[in-house]
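Two proteins were folded this term; both appear here.
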Amino acid sequence: MRSQRGRINGVLITFSLSTLRDVIARVFEPPASPPKERLMALVRARDEGFQVGIVFIPILPHVSDGELEETVRIAKDCGVDYVHVAPLTLDVGVREKYFKGY
């Protein structure tokens, strides 16, 4: 059933991103599609009438934390209905290992 805006009611399609940069995504999400391909799929789903959005999760300290504004702008340009953002959360032992590399 479609809403008055022409959207398919009751269906949300959410795409996750942790970075916009393909080279970084290959390191942190090796089996996932590159970010640009996910954004193209998002636009196709939106054009088909689905409600679409992105989750920019996790924001990676010292890696993708500087991409927040650009990611939200690109999401808006793609016509998303929502954006959810959350930082990386790490247990104490893992946190030390993560930041030791910097």
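Next, the second protein.
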Amino acid sequence: MRFADQDALNIALDGRVRYIDPKWNFRYHLVDYLTRGETRLNVSQPYVFMHFTGPVKPWHNWCLHDIRELFTDIQSRSPWAESPLDAPRTTRELKLFSKFLITQHRIAEGIYWHCRYLKSRLMQN
């Protein structure tokens, strides 16, 4: 199963679905915004639940979007208050982080993380 939670739901529901208003599962792809250098939440419609699609999540310490601040504020009032945010681990995450830093004109940091990405790539071979 590639997407364990979604695959399990698909199996359990076995084709019995009901389409609901998108506000109940508003999808927000942080990579799209960060690639353009946008860091502010940009939502034009009301939502109840926001689903962060793609590889960048608000609980990553390398998420350079303002939504991370909202996440950490809520986290600080939860039973997971002491849980650290996730650092970049995969080569893809290292590459994305370096790209986002450079997009935000944080060149020295971007170069540092790009070197970490390159080292990670070399270690794979």
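The CA atoms of residues 1 and 8 lie 8 Å apart. The chain has two domains: 21-86, 88-125. These notes refer to the second protein only.
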